[in-house]
User: Which sequence fits this backbone?
């Protein structure tokens, strides 16, 4: 496991997705340490003096692939004081600090896997999907949900990977469809849920489940999986928020 490092970064690009959701691309001052898909970083907006304390920070899944060590990407939704600061203060060219890598939310290839991703929770899985190869020995079911089709911001990237690897089976869920686009893009207009996915999984009782998203969603999915007979050891949650 790589030792965590503190690195200054320059904000290269900020992509506004609407509904106060953003992707931030960072250029670190040096190559970041090796990390594994599913790990996260701490982001600090204030300057860091190595002789003092680490400033106020927040954790974000590393959305970029581990082989892109000259770039880092995160995606966030404005929820609370720190992310409100990010929306106001981040600008292209601004210097920020990160420390990484942290976490052990690793997708294992010991069984079929089901990935539940709500909103920006998809970033817990993007690095894994970017490193997926035909050698992965099991099926990967991705249930990716958002409020509407515009906020399925990694959908095109997921589709590119699904076109390359037959073992990847993505399903998309939107809670509302104001523009009527779901019918043409095959999203399901319903809330992301265990019930909606259960019949789409070949052997649901033999799969391992990975959950990432808002805490109420994680609680509801975990409850429903346990009600359907999935043991606690087969449910893994990205629960650092």
Assistant:
């Amino acid at each position: 496991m790589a030792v965590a490092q503190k690195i200054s970064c320059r904000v290269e690009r900020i992509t506004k997705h609407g509904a106060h959701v953003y992707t931030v691309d960072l250029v670190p001052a040096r190559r970041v340490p090796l990390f594994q898909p599913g790990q996260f970083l701490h982001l600090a907006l204030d300057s860091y003096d190595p002789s003092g304390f680490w400033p106020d920070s927040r954790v974000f899944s590393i959305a970029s692939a581990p082989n892109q060590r000259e770039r880092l990407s995160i995606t966030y939704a404005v929820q609370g004081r720190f992310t409100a600061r990010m929306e106001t203060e981040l600008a292209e060219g601004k210097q920020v600090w990160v420390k990484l890598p942290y976490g052990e939310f690793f997708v294992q290839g010991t069984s079929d896997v089901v990935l539940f991703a709500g909103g920006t929770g998809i970033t817990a899985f993007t690095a894994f999907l970017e490193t997926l190869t035909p050698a992965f020995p099991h099926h990967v079911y991705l249930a990716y949900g958002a409020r509407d089709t515009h906020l399925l911001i990694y959908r095109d990237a997921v589709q590119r990977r699904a076109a390359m690897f037959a073992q990847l089976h993505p399903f998309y869920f939107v809670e509302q469809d104001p523009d009527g686009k779901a019918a043409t893009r095959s999203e399901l207009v319903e809330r992301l849920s265990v019930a909606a996915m259960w019949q789409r999984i070949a052997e649901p009782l033999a799969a391992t489940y990975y959950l990432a998203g808002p805490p109420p969603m994680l609680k509801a999915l975990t409850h429903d999986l346990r009600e359907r007979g999935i043991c606690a050891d087969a449910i893994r949650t990205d629960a650092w928020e």
Observations:
- The first helix runs from residue 81 to 89.
- The chain has a mean pLDDT of 94.
